[in-house]
Design goal:
- The complex is a heterotrimer of chains A (261), B (292) and C (284).
- Chain A is 41% helix and 23% strand.
- In chain A, helix 5 packs across helix 6.
- Chain B has 292 residues and is mainly α.
- Chain B has a domain of 189 residues.
- Chain B contains 11 helices and 2 strands; from the N terminus they run H-H-H-H-E-E-H-H-H-H-H-H-H.
- In chain B, helix 2 packs across helix 9, helix 3 crosses helix 4 and helix 3 crosses helix 8.
- Chain C has one domain: ABC transporter involved in vitamin B12 uptake, BtuC (Orthogonal Bundle), CATH 1.10.3470.
- The chains are: A alpha/beta (261), B mainly alpha (292), C mainly alpha (284).
- At the B-C interface, helix 3, helix 4, helix 9 and helix 11 of B face helix 3, helix 4, helix 9 and helix 12 of C.
- The complex binds adenosine-5'-triphosphate (ATP) and magnesium ion (MG).
- The site of magnesium ion has 3 residues of chain A, from helix 1.
């Protein structure tokens, strides 16, 4: 397993946002976490990426226990993420945004930087090439010198993906990448996510939108009120009574069950 | 000897608490560490000085100075902070604006009035002192203690026992939601500024009376202590400010008595730094929830 | 020729002040560049000034040995207080650093060997003017080179969005501590240089008002490049010299500058930002 959580919990003053969640994400493929509003999906991502500390439970990544590892070290270990509310560096250029994704890979010494030694120049050239490649992946290669805040909403979302991908992560966490997109943009996004998975990066994504997830992912984990209520292939999720109930409410589920032939 | 020192410490502490009440209220509601606060303290003291020099009795000069300080506070809040509040600027921007403003205000006042220490007209308040069990307490000190107790009680009642207090607390929690619920946040902000400024002004009058030394920078040295009080008490915590103020007064008096009078400020700030290091939200505070 | 000596004397002081204030503005710039409002620059300057003065006066060490050591002292102080202090955010950090400055001022006032309220005088005027400007130029150069590198990028990212920067692998703690130390070096240097060009230092040279004044330098200039804060410092140092009436209200001006800069000029006078990459010419 590339990523594994066991009995992972996070409490907020009386509220259990993530409740003893077990997650097992194998190397490769596209995996989804879905659930209604407030189910704890973002909190789960924050726990995995190290932005929140668990109240209980363990997380391991690539065979290493990372429960206590700070977020920056997790990024260095090959984890990258995007945010539900866009968090590009608005006043930096698009290229600089992508370059921050390579931060963990740049390791020039201070003297080399100050004296502009050849090692530094080479590393910088290299990094720019990788950042450009990441921008090309999401189709932003022509906007490299634009200020990131000036990009359209959808482009900013794609820039976040490029920034996360620039460092060549093993695991990419996408928090509602399709939020606010129209159907055409969603289709393009699905293609992009498939391309990323095809490059060998494992993708774990959060979505509200069932149809988007169903066609895309290899496995689905469903959260409701912080608890994992389902884990398995997408087809089975659609049939699962617990999932249906969580999504459309108890009464509607009973009614649906009654109407079923 | 120790008992007298503890009493003196308590009295000094009451002045600190009195000063810090409005300061912590301002932070608690408006989410701004408003450094111009010390200026309202100076302003109150000077206004009372001028009024009493013109022959006004203390029981008129005190409320007049407090109200005028409150108005100055409302005006400055409007001039300096509404723009930032509307733009949703971060708290550091407000801190810097008030930092700059207060420097300009003190320095301007010094340039205008000179740095001399002024004294209130004699006989404003009966000079007598109460002596009992070998302890001595002056009338001005009793006035401060009474004012401190009264104002803490009033503030707590206002915040916890009235609809207005409820609206103020709603605004402190979630300004955006409060606005949606039809609470006129701009008017409330003005009101809170007024109340805080008036508290500072009243504090300036009373403390000026106690030490009988009024000068432009009196607010600044008080301000630095105000930091200690509101941080140790927990930013925005009225009751915490009271306890921390008393504690600080006692510590300062004991430091001066048993170690060295020159070190009392350093000890106060060492306390501040230690509390910040170990309990960033203050001794009586809870950390503000931060959104990830 | 007395008037000429007078003139030289006046402008000598001004020239020293310009160089020293430039260094102080850079010391502020470094922490603002990572989005931190730490107001300990005057305190660091005081540590540099006092420690260098002591080494000269009490130990009789030569200036070339004193100068580097006087940067070490503030850095050691930064390292000692940095761990717990840098965990603080926003206003708490600002308040804590003001508090630390006041603690130090209390120490200067109360330790006999530091001269108490009288301060220290008779410090040898051993700092040549060219050295001050050489240090300033070196500091600008280093900050320019670092600012344009990946380190500068990470610093900017931290300032714009700490959470996002953290998720990109930026070690926030280390960057905060490193910038605090850099700030301490620059301010300590400024302190030692100014102590050794004016022969007198006192505890009030390093209190609350100097701390705020240093902030006004950086806010007026802006933090788009290391030139900007130096420009701010020079303007605010020169203005009272050129417009004599301003000299009496120098602090009023400094305070008002902060207000105006934050409200109306959030990017400073020199809003130009140093380019990290030049857009390549049209592709062939
Ligand atoms: N920092 C916090 N402090 C207190 N409560 C929080 C915090 N973060 C999240 N919560 C609560 O935890 C629960 C789960 O929130 P979370 O953001 O993880 O849900 P989500 O599944 O991502 O929802 P959405 O689909 O709306 O993004 C919610 O009830 C939320 O209010
Ligand atoms: Mg979410």
């Amino acid at each position: 397993m590339l990523l594994q959580t066991s009995a992972l919990s996070r409490h907020f003053a009386g509220l259990v946002a993530v409740d003893r969640v077990d997650l097992a994400i194998p190397q490769g493929g596209i995996h989804a976490v879905i659930g209604p509003n407030g189910a704890g999906k973002t909190t789960l991502f924050n726990l995995i990426s190290g932005l929140a500390t668990p109240t209980a439970g363990q997380i391991s990544f690539a065979g290493q226990d990372i429960t206590l590892l700070p977020a920056d070290r997790r990024a260095q270990a090959g984890m990258a993420r995007t945010f539900q509310n866009i968090r590009v560096f608005a006043t930096m250029s698009v290229l600089d945004n992508a370059l921050t994704g390579l931060h963990a890979r740049l390791s020039a010494s201070l003297p080399a930087i100050i004296a502009r030694l050849p090692g530094f120049r080479r590393a910088e050239r290299d990094a720019i090439a990788r950042a450009q490649a990441a921008l090309a992946l999401v189709g932003l290669q022509d906007r490299a010198y634009t200020q990131a805040g000036a990009l359209a909403y959808g482009d900013q979302r794609r820039l976040e993906i490029a920034r996360a991908m620039a460092g060549g992560p093993r695991l990419l966490l996408l928090d509602e990448p399709a939020a606010g997109m129209n159907p055409a943009e969603r289709a393009a996004l699905a293609t992009l996510i498939r391309a990323i998975a095809a490059q060998g990066t494992t993708v774990l994504l959060v979505e509200h939108d069932m149809p988007f997830v169903m066609g895309l992912s290899d496995s689905v984990t469903v959260l409701n009120f912080g608890r994992r209520i389902f884990a398995g292939p997408p087809g089975a999720a659609r049939q699962d009574p617990g999932v249906i109930e969580a999504y459309i409410g108890h009464k509607a589920a009973v009614r649906l069950a009654g109407q079923a032939p | 000897m120790l008992a007298q020192q503890l009493l003196n410490g308590l009295l000094l502490g009451a002045t600190y608490a009195l000063f810090a009440l409005g300061f912590t209220l301002m932070f608690g509601v408006l989410r701004v560490v408003n450094l111009t606060y010390g200026f309202y303290f100076t302003a109150g003291a000077f206004l009372a000085l001028w009024l009493t020099q013109a022959g006004a009795p203390l029981f008129l000069a005190l409320p007049a100075a407090a109200i005028a300080s409150g108005l100055i506070a409302t005006l400055l809040d409007w001039l300096l902070l509404t723009r930032l509040r509307r733009a949703g600027a971060d708290e550091l921007a407000s801190l810097m604006v008030t930092l700059g403003a207060v420097l300009a205000l003190y320095a301007g006042m010094t340039a205008w009035l000179g740095p001399d220490i002024r004294r209130l007209p004699p006989g404003l308040i009966a000079a007598g002192a109460l002596e009992a069990f070998g302890l001595r307490i002056t009338l001005a000190q009793i006035l401060i203690l009474a004012a401190c107790a009264l104002l803490v009680g009033l503030l707590l009642w206002l915040m916890r026992g009235t609809r207005l207090g409820l609206a103020i607390r709603a605004m402190a929690e979630r300004p955006d939601t409060a606005a949606l619920m039809g609470i006129a946040t701009a008017r409330l902000a003005a009101l809170v500024s007024f109340v805080s400024g008036a508290l500072a002004g009243a504090g300036g009058v009373l403390i000026g009376l106690n030490f009988n030394a009024i000068h432009p920078y009196m607010g600044e040295s008080m301000m630095l202590r105000g930091f200690v009080v509101i941080v140790v008490g927990g930013l925005g915590n009225i009751f915490g400010a009271l306890v921390a103020g008393l504690l600080l007064g006692i510590i300062e008096v004991l430091t001066a008595g048993y170690i060295s009078s020159g070190l009392k400020e350093a000890v106060a700030f060492a306390l501040l730094v230690l509390v910040l290091w170990t309990r960033p939200a203050g001794l009586f505070g809870t950390t503000l929830a931060r959104k990830a | 020729m007395a008037w000429f000596d007078d003139l030289l004397f006046t402008y000598q002081n001004l020239a020293v002040a310009l160089g020293v204030n430039g260094l102080l503005a850079l010391s502020m710039y470094v922490v603002l560049a990572v989005g931190q409002l730490s107001l300990g620059q005057a305190a660091f300057m005081g540590l540099g000034a006092y420690s260098s003065a002591l080494m000269s006066l009490q130990l009789g060490w030569p200036f070339w040995a004193v100068l580097p050591l006087s940067c070490v002292v503030p850095v050691l102080f930064a390292l000692a207080v940095g761990g717990p202090t840098l965990r603080l955010n926003g206003v708490y950090l600002a308040i804590a650093t003001i508090g630390l400055g006041e603690v130090l001022r209390g120490v200067y006032l109360n330790v006999d060997v530091l001269g108490g309220a009288m301060g220290l005088s008779g410090i040898p005027e051993a700092a040549p003017l060219w050295l001050i400007y050489a240090m300033l130029a070196l500091a600008v150069l280093v900050l320019w080179q670092v600012g344009k590198s990946g380190i500068g990028r990470a610093m900017e990212a931290m300032r714009l969005d700490e959470t996002a920067a953290l998720s990109m692998g930026v070690n926030i703690r280390r960057y905060r501590l490193a910038t605090l130390c850099a700030s301490a070096v620059l301010a300590g240097l400024a302190g030692a240089l100014s102590a050794h060009s004016t022969d007198f230092i006192g505890p009030n040279d390093f209190g609350f008002e100097p701390a705020v004044t240093i902030l006004s330098f950086a806010l007026l200039g802006g933090i788009g490049s290391p030139f900007a804060p130096v420009l701010g410092a020079w303007l605010l140092t020169l203005l009272p010299e050129v417009l004599r009436p301003l000299a009496d209200v120098r602090l009023v001006m400094n305070g008002a500058v902060i207000v105006v800069a934050v409200l109306f000029l959030p990017r400073g006078l020199l809003a130009w930002r140093m380019p990290r990459h030049v857009r390549p010419g049209r592709a062939a």
